[in-house]
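ok so heres the complex, two chains, lmk if somethin looks off
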Amino acid sequence: MIATGASPIIPDLPGFDLPGVLALKTLEDGRKIKQFIHDQNVKKAIIIGMGYIALEMCEALHDRDIGVEMVKPRPVLLPWMHEKLADMVKEEIASNGINMHLGHEVKEIEKTHKGLKVVCSDLVLEGQMVLVAIGVIPNSQLAEQAGLGLGPQKAIAVDRSLLTSDPHIYAAGDCADAFHVVTEQRTWIPLALRANRAGWAVADNVTGKNAELQGVAGTAVFKVLGLEVARTGLSVEEAEKFGFEPVEMMIQARTRAHRHPGASSIGVQMVADRKSGRLLGAQLVGREGVAHRVNAPAVALHARFTLEEFSQSDLAYAPPFGPTWDPMLTAANQLLKSL
Amino acid sequence: MIATGASPIIPDLPGFDLPGVLALKTLEDGRKIKQFIHDQNVKKAIIIGMGYIALEMCEALHDRDIGVEMVKPRPVLLPWMHEKLADMVKEEIASNGINMHLGHEVKEIEKTHKGLKVVCSDLVLEGQMVLVAIGVIPNSQLAEQAGLGLGPQKAIAVDRSLLTSDPHIYAAGDCADAFHVVTEQRTWIPLALRANRAGWAVADNVTGKNAELQGVAGTAVFKVLGLEVARTGLSVEEAEKFGFEPVEMMIQARTRAHRHPGASSIGVQMVADRKSGRLLGAQLVGREGVAHRVNAPAVALHARFTLEEFSQSDLAYAPPFGPTWDPMLTAANQLLKSL
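and the predicted structre for the whole thing:
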């Protein structure tokens, strides 16, 4: 069984090997970062990248009163996300005094007398620590050298039993791929639940229990400052890539019943396929009730529900927890009109 | 179209017509209660009944510093609920200084010089206001007199198009029944979402849109003091009644990842059918993350998922919102072992 995980991408550019240029993947990495912050009395950090890990670390550092600047080459924050939802995230980060520098390609990192300097062609950021959080790659070198089949992003290709192309070798965890329940194609979405579940399934299979995993819906959630951000299924762009005819809807609703104290705004985007009527995905941003709300459409994706079927779900209602029509249903009802 | 709603059950016993004996159904009822509390400077109230409304009102009155005593004839709190989950609710109420008198049949209400007296055979409770919250009945008299077919609890029987037994008459709202997606039999679960949805569906049908409703899963949630309490689908008793062979599991898990600050305990009960392997229902109690968590199994009930299928759902994970295996999945995995 190959369970080699994934590794953070470290660009092959000058200065990325300097002390104080760190990445977060393992528990040991986390300890190193804490130690460095403590030893160097870090007051200012630069994060390269703006994905889940980058955003979670921006919050963690901000909570320790460390000034944070973020930089990335692409001009769009969370490119898979509906623009208005991404704007909610952007505003939350900006309103906490964190600078996001989008659209700046990092050329190198230099040592200065006070710390480190991240150099882009048109921007220089200075700090005492640089966190590199631009993504991960599967540790599939061993598998590749052994001649095993590879899937998307060179993750180790496995079937529903977690077998690789060699019937005597299993693979599980962030190094292995999975089937996507919406596209039914191979995908590589290295997240904790699937990694964990695949490990258990291999254990079942080697002990003769015959476990088969249906696949992933790409459900994910993260918290950044006061916001919860979640997604499941496909974005419009992904849906197009897999031959669907996606139609999307973005709504703003409330997290609790009309006039209930503590209610706040929740943004929901939903995507369905015009041809088949199938629900394809959903994205949510809000201050509460996002993390678990995404699981209703996630289960609907496993069920291959049409949008119409999902829109009929009997979801829980009580005033402290949502409007009579849950925002997921409001999004579905609105999207149905444009299908 | 008949949309006559439901009415609170008021027992035909002496004293239930006294001033200060109130029920809560309409907005007007709510205003009356508030006015009475204000006018009479109510410091002590007695609630007859311990269902959703009774428990929500116990919290509302408690928040206004009104002493509350609750009484009901049956000896079991929330009889549809797993005993250990019901105990969590009981403890929460007791720890807030609210007395629950279970197993006391109310004989009458009497006027005293200070207020009102609820008289049971072996107990007398005194207060200034009595709230009667022992349930509702459908307002189906008109339909019955017109000779329309009635369903469970004499709710007006409607088909999936919301048509009554007379093809020229629709019914919707708390007066009408629904199909249950698990049992596929008629049921009467008067809750806001279904009532609202049925109203819209009738509007669609009379304007030529041909709306059909799949039915309800019996998903419900309420908040009482610091607890969220939710259910979907069938209890063990209900499952037996409808010919299933129910197996249940009750687990305790955490609302957030291991050692994440703010985590608390969440109790989950899950029921599946031994013969078909189908997921039949779930119940949850906890301080956070209950209200929306119940929607994942609710959608799975609509999908007629087996427990095994539900257990493979790709639910969202991040440390602030749950363990890697969501408590719903842990419950499913544990229950699978006894199936």
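quick notes: Chain B touches chain A through 54 residues (CB under 8 Å). thats all i got rn
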